[in-house]
Amino acid sequence: MQISIVTVIDIETALAEGSLDGNAYVIDNTGPFAQLPHARVTNVPGVYDANGSQAMEAVLNWITVGVAQLPPTLPRSYPHRFNIANTARRLLSPSVRTQEHISKIQEHISKMLTDPPKPLQVRDRGAVRTYDAPVLNAAGKVLKPDDATTAASVPPVVVRIRGAAVEDGVLYPALYGSPDPLTDGWYWSATVDTAKVGRHDYTMEVALYRPVQETSKMLWEPLLFTLSCGIQVSNVPSVNGFTSGFVPGLLPIPPSGPTCVEGDAI
Predict the structure, then answer these.
(1) φ, ψ (nearest 5 deg) of residue 184
(2) What are 222-252's pLDDT values in tens digits?
(3) Which residues have a Cβ under 8 Å from the Cβ of 23 and sit 6 or more positions away?
(4) Using CA atoms, how far apart are residues 266 and 261, in angstroms rounded to an integer?
(5) What is the number of other CB atoms lying within 10 angstroms of the CB of residue 79?
(6) Does the pTM exceed 0.85?
(7) pLDDT digits (tens, 9 = 90+) for 172-192
(8) Where are the beta strands (DSSP E) in 2-120?
């Protein structure tokens, strides 16, 4: 069972208050779970067979985004693709009749190619490195690295997952490689021992970036925050979704006649 946990963070407020409490919201795909406000507990169905044996384990996947961040369902290159398509449409438009109009559009294209957006300079374990991609806001606009409001759109990064659930052998988190550029090539996942029914707490360590002025340039450094979360492993039977029975059984598909006869091409 794959369970996606999306952590939405109000980055600006969290940086201003120095805490994620009240500024982070956990949303998952297992449905609502009766809990106290801001408890951030994910329901994990611990499925077992009719004989009482454990049927399967659950897998958690964490996605962390900012409130003002570009939606993760859109690739970071979509504004560039939009500009190319829009420029092509304008060039093909019947209203573009004069050479002057065409020259202005070509000049705009040339400027986009020769004046790329400046990336952020990020402090990473004492060294300064260049952020992998330009930072975009939710509207797809490229943000400037020397603008303090850019902090609201710099993606938060999960640094570590720890706590009682990990120490007690309920959660087994790991950092995996991925070709997805939205996660900079890495994402957190964990398997869950669903035989251990009950409430298990864990904490996420999240890095939020803030701007720091140094001499003549703006550097961005990470600040670590902790977010208290939990999982509630329930004990429910494994039921066939087609037959509603407790055993796999056969799918309720009525028999049909032969689809081909001997000698026909397949």
Answers:
(1) 55, 30
(2) 899 999 999 998 887 666 666 766 655 566 6
(3) 9, 10, 13, 14, 17
(4) 10
(5) 17
(6) no
(7) 998 887 655 445 557 789 999
(8) 2-9, 24-28, 41-48, 58-66
